[in-house]
Amino acid sequence: MISSTLVKAGVAAIAAATTAVAASLPAISAVGNKFFDPSGKQFFIKGIAYQLIPHDPLMDTEQCTLDAKAMKTLGANTIRVYHVDPTADHDGCMAAFADNGIYILVDLDDFATDIDPLAPTWNDSQYKAYSAIFDVFAKYTNTLGVFIGNEVIARANQSESAPYIKAATRDMKAYRDKKGFRNIPVGYSAADIAELRPMLQDYLVCGDTADTADFFGLNAYEWCEAGNDFQTSGYKTLDDMAQGYPVPIFFSETGCNTARPRLFLDQNAILGPDMNDLWSGAIVYEWIEEKNNYGLISYGPPQGEKTGTNIEDGFLRKGTPTPVQPDFSNLQAVWKTNNPTGTAKSAYTPKLTAPACPKSTAGGWLLDGDVALPTLNQIFTASPTNKPTDVGKNQNPTATSTDSSAPTGTNGAVAVGRELSGMTGALAAVVVGFAALL
Ligand SMILES: *[C@@H]1O[C@H](CO)[C@@H](O)[C@H](O)[C@H]1NC(C)=O
Ligand SMILES: *[C@@H]1O[C@H](CO)[C@@H](O)[C@H](O)[C@H]1NC(C)=O
């Protein structure tokens, strides 16, 4: 116990010292479909999903310092954090990561505020919650970007919630600009759903650029067999579907764990010549070992039924990170051999055209073209009058708004609501037909 107290005191002293002299990392910006540092060197993500505890892993400077050092050894330059508490102090953790050359991608949503695909909303309370997190993280130069959501659309039949993702993107970009933040990219992290490929990724970047995502992250667990390669893994298909993509695209989660040990050979494809002309790297899932067996480190043996301050769900959430081997070393080795230089900003003049907004497809993408987006607080409910025969060119579904100042919309928007989840295929087809009329 004495020794661990001493170690802790030592770490606290180091943490205090590093906070005082915290280096700030040069801010990364997005140009065309690439990320660049201020010197004009292209930036490729070598990232780790980092969420030790459900609500905010960026409050404990001592822990962040231990983890950031271990991540530097691993070769990581980015972490992805899913949930943070905007009222907490993040200075120590952000400095600890900056000192170790590590950027942060952070989600603006939280459990209570994310967009529910079955009853999508984009409302004042969400706007306030997202902007509170944006306010906090905008001041750190090692904030690489923010996510509007993670896998909001989790099933093929939830594509009609996409206008809400885009509305949130539109409003957070406008908020960033209004507040005078630097041009921190605002993007989305998508589940890899075969029926929605590539419609979702195209939809989020089509149409008016005021509404579009600044980057697209794909959570893909396709490279699952030890013998997989660029072709057999499915990555070639992903790559084909992303040709000409106008904004940075990367894997926001990857690292299938069904073949053990994990070899992470997909990193050779992503960061190597097969994909690095288009993709900006990957985030490996995940730092801490827990029940799902995706961990790269652990803070001690599984705790079974034990409970305690630093134990959650049977695993220690704090302590000295101990590599899970050989996985940790395997990832370290593939990252060490993949150091793409990419394109210099000075030699890069993007000539990229946004894709057209996708047409609806039977049993797949349910939005037809560039449907109007909901305004803040606007909720559309399907109603019997939403039939194509009843709707003239300029008629709209009823908008119920909690904010009387919110316009009810003159362009209409696709009907989305909880009602939809109970619809039969025939009624859903009517709704799609309606969308087509707009
Ligand atoms: C706003 O959205 C959140 C998240 O979906 C929801 O919990 C809340 O009830 C909504 N508030 C209003 C006033 O609709
Ligand atoms: C959506 O798909 C899931 C299965 O993927 C199914 O359980 C659910 O009932 C479907 N919802 C609708 C509205 O069809």
From TrEMBL:
Statement: the UniProt record of this protein carries the keyword Glycoprotein: yes
Pfam hit, one: Glyco_hydro_72
Highest taxon listed in the record's lineage: Eukaryota
Compartmental location: Cell membrane
Main subcellular location: membrane
One Gene Ontology cellular component: plasma membrane
Full protein name: 1,3-beta-glucanosyltransferase
A molecular-function term among this protein's GO annotations: 1,3-beta-glucanosyltransferase activity
InterPro entries assigned: GH (IPR017853), Glucanosyltransferase (IPR004886)
Summary of the function given for this chain in its UniProt record: Splits internally a 1,3-beta-glucan molecule and transfers the newly generated reducing end (the donor) to the non-reducing end of another 1,3-beta-glucan molecule (the acceptor) forming a 1,3-beta linkage, resulting in the elongation of 1,3-beta-glucan chains in the cell wall.
PANTHER family associated with the record: 1,3-BETA-GLUCANOSYLTRANSFERASE GAS1, 1,3-BETA-GLUCANOSYLTRANSFERASE GAS2
Protease listed as a keyword: no
The EC number(s) this enzyme carries: 2.4.1.-
SUPFAM superfamilies: (Trans)glycosidases
Low complexity biased stretches: 397-410
Composition bias, Polar residues: 382-396
Positions of region (Disordered): 382-410
Topological type in the membrane: Lipid-anchor; GPI-anchor
Keywords from the UniProt entry: Glycoprotein, GPI-anchor, Lipoprotein, Membrane, Signal, Transferase
Family statement drawn from the similarity comment of this UniProt entry: Belongs to the glycosyl hydrolase 72 family.
GO biological process: fungal-type cell wall (1->3)-beta-D-glucan biosynthetic process; fungal-type cell wall organization
Signal sequence residues: 1-23
